[in-house]
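Box 3.1 A note on notation
Throughout this textbook, protein chains are presented in two layers. The first layer is the amino acid sequence; the second is a token string describing backbone geometry. Keep the layers aligned when reading.
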Amino acid sequence: MLAAMALALVGGGSALAQTDTISEQDKTFLKVQQETNIAEVALGKVAVERATTETVRELAKKLLADHQQVMELNRALTTKLGLPVPDQPSAEQQATGEKVKAQSGAAFDAAYVAAQVEGHTKSVAKAQQEISSGSHPEVKAFATDYAPKAQMHLQHAQAAQAALSSDTTAQGGDLARTGSGSGPLILFGAGLLSVGLVARRWGRWHQP
């Protein structure tokens, strides 16, 4: 459906609609959605390079490719409607991106996935709001096409988050088992050391 919408937008791009026929809800949705695309593309490129698990890397690749496509569709529609096209994420999205990029290793993976769950939860809600409360038919059609993609992204992010949590729990269990098994050995070694010290002191005290 997105491909068909792209053709429709290109075909009708020469006839600009009047911005006064578009509600504030429509304008806000297009603006916020494009800011999300920009944020997702920027952070996705970082995640593809820095993710430490294949699960997170594949998630980042999928979101990067999809949001690049949606970005172009949004730009075409926004331009057609005579509205300004955002060129950077929102301040909140920029702050979130910086927090994620400040992490490394497993902490980066966890932070990136958590940001995707939170961000796409909001994206689904905003698309649904446009579908139910928007006015302009083309903007509502765009939201209708985007909503299931955002929902799919959310589900993928939640699955990745669950996988990371499962891995962390498994590693913690391994460490716990290793620790409990080595405990007696540590105590045994400490006991031998104590016996050796006592024996040396006893020998010095009882030298003729």
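The mean pLDDT is 83. The chain is about 85% helix and 0% strand.
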